[in-house]
Amino acid sequence: MAKSGVFERDQTTSVKAMELKKELQKLVRAIVDEDDINLEAIDRAQQMLCSLKELKLKKSISLKLNSHRYGAVPEEFKCPLSKELMRDPVIVATGQTYDRPFIQKWLKSGNRTCPRTQQVLSHTLLTPNHLIREMIAQWCKSNGIKLPDSVQDLSEEGLTEADWDHFLSLLGKMSLTLSDQKEAAKELRLMTKRMPSFRALFGESVDAIPQLLSPLSRTKPENGVHPGLQEDLVTTLLNLSIHDNNKKLVAETPMVIPILMDALRSGTIETRSNAAAALFTLSALDSNKALIGKSGAMKPLLDLLDEGHPLAMKDVASAIFTLCIIHENKVRAVRDGAVRVILNKITSGVHVDELLSILAMLSTNQRAIEDMGELGAVSCLFSIIKETSCARNKENCIAILYTICFSDRSKWKEMREEESMHHTISQLAQNGTSRAKRKASGILDRLNRAVNLTHTA
User: Fold this and answer.
1) Residue 118 has what pLDDT?
2) Which domain does 203 fall in, by range?
3) Which N-terminal stretch is annotated as signal sequence (predicted)?
């Protein structure tokens, strides 16, 4: 009786084959029906055929192996990760052997330990295990199993040497005509969106990102940038930055952040939104937060937030919030007018949840407190507490008011009047979240002590 895992793999292979065939049918129709020759469709069809061939080979090997009685394959010939016969055994730093595509997938996912021993790998170089490979070849010959003559280096999406060559050819087009650049940029955008392993290819070559962005770095200001090309390249950068192993590489490539800042200022709204999203994704690393902040990115982000285009608001707010986690960027944001911009949007009812979180973060900065005082933040925050049903928003509002209360005595009168008329603070002290209760109680204590001191005096 076949193992359930084998049955499930066969089902998965069949589903993938059906999907590839459907895609191939669409491409063939596109090629046949169009008057002109669609080179992109032809290239894609060739890729589909190669993928179908690879699936067929894998299925054939699996069927032959399963025809043997269970346990016939020696354990030392099986990959500890796939539990299948190894086709390209390699040795990692701990001395353990794995099948190359499976250990590569493990490493490209960000793991830096040996799956079998859990030891931290001193390096990620993979050394071919010629002895085991020869023994596997002899065993296969004795059992009538024919493995492919050449083992292709497959990633989780099935990237082959042909894919690598295609990747390099697309980058090469970035130094050709505008038409070539636009065609290649659009394909790179789609491939980095759909295929995580294609994103990883950019980490394999130190020149890949500079080549990708060369049309933008060479453009003279008086000539301007082609909007569609800029959008595709910036979006490709966003796709690349999603891959954890790329974050440091992308941000530290000298031309990247200046290009993203130019896109924030002058691109289409889609380009500007995606540039903000790229900065947000890159800022997951603290070192990148500092780098992006020093570059002056906070001002164009705030300008875009101030414009208030619905398509960009979420990405811009996320970028500003993440960048402001470090103190230096809070200072920069406040200096560049963040409090005014954020309060204006909150008053307009735009993305209140996200912007209140940013304002709460900025409230640890003394100048931010001063700006809030001048811009009427106290009445705005009390209004939100009374009107919203969101516990998180109430908590952020009272946390900001707590900081204002302890930093700006001129606002005590306004707070006492609010409490006297609506009992806003005491209600939150009784019914808020645990943090909101603490902050509200702290404000009441402070205001009561101030009143007592006044009467005593």
Assistant:
1) 87
2) 171-336
3) none
